[in-house]
Amino acid sequence: MKLFRKRLIPEEIIELKEDRIVFAGERQLVTVWNVIRPRTDFTHGCSCYFLEEGFKVSQFLREDGSLKCWYCDIVACERTEQGDGYIFTDLLADVVIEENGMVQVVDLDELSQAFENGLIGREQLVCALRQLDGLLKKIYSGEFAACQRFLEERTKGAF
């Protein structure tokens, strides 16, 4: 199965050739990966795409395997034309959950910029905001812990 990450700012599509799929279900897709470009704050991680809910939950891990943070992307998911994979469009709004539990919503300025510059339409903007709202409701209600457990259970021993 092929996976692609489509970014709007900067505009690019990258095949995630090195990502390893460790679970593929009807509603979730779980991958383990190393960073695409070298970083000092984290080196690898794992992600769960919640295909119907429109978000991706990732664990960013340091070289020693310790948790840097949980990082959640709001995404649009579509099948490739050949039907052999997925294209995940980053809808720019993100949620970062620090080790201490602090929650930050980030990059809403980029979402606004994408709309103003015609990179996304009204429908995608509304969809991104609804998906962000759904994710935040999960986080604030305590339901997000189930998303974290789902990812951790499927990546145990995968590194």
Q: What is the averaged pLDDT score?
A: 96
> Span from first to last CA?
20 Å
Helix content: 25-40%
Strand proportion, as a percent range, falls in: 35-45%
Query: What is the string of SSEs from the N terminus onward?
Result: EEEEEEEEEHHH
Low-confidence stretches: none
Instruction: List the total number of helices.
Output: 3
Shape estimate: globular
Output the radius of gyration: 15 Å
Largest sheet: 9 strands, mixed
Indicate the structural class: alpha+beta
- This entry's quaternary arrangement is single chain
Quantity of strands, as a count: 9
Describe the structure.
By secondary structure, the chain is an alpha+beta fold. Helix content is 26%, strand content 42%. It is built from three helices and nine strands. Strands 1, 2, 3, 4, 5, 6, 7, 8 and 9 form a nine-stranded mixed sheet that branches. It is globular. 27% of the residues are buried.
Short recap of the structure:
The protein has 159 residues and is of the alpha+beta class. Helix content is 26%, strand content 42%. Strands 1, 2, 3, 4, 5, 6, 7, 8 and 9 form a nine-stranded mixed beta sheet that branches.
Would you spell out the secondary-structure blueprint of this structure?
Layout: E1 2-7, E2 12-15, E3 20-24, E4 28-34, E5 44-50, E6 55-61, E7 67-79, E8 85-98, E9 103-106, H1 108-116, H2 122-141, H3 144-155
